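Please, is this right?
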Amino acid sequence: MNKAISFAKVEYERDVHRLHRWMQEEHVIPFWNLNIPLDEYKEHLQKFLGDRHQTLYLGCIEGVPMSYWEAYWVKGDVIEYYYSYDPFDQGIHLLIGEKAFLGKGYALPLLRAMVRFQFLTLQTEKVIAEPDIRNEKMIHVFKKCGFEPVKPIELPDKTGLLMFCHRETFERKWQHVIDTQKA
């Protein structure tokens, strides 16, 4: 992909209406269940922005916000009860919000960039995901990125597929891309 990828931390005032709009999209609703009234979403976003175990980002292509990301520490998240985690394990949730960016092959390069960013924390040896087990497209993207399915898990809001991406696997798989980006 010959387009610039960037991430910006979510800012409540700037982003609340955009994120609420994305949560109303037909391709987002079944997997996020946040197609709620704006006032409720405002409370939800404020709560999530105040949660110190996660950081919320907008993913951008050529400076255009088009995706939403929740990068989190497993410790302190509900997922910590579903496997024997390391204190530096991180996790990721994502969605492509702008329909014009769907089906263009952006999900994999964006995911790769975010996982690479998470591995900048040298103690992190594993990034996890637990996409909705029905979300075959995202499971496929996670696998292409280097995530391996571990087991289905019953979370409070969905049946997820627990997936692990180990640093060694990721770096081996993407070393050519990482080297190219450094040059």
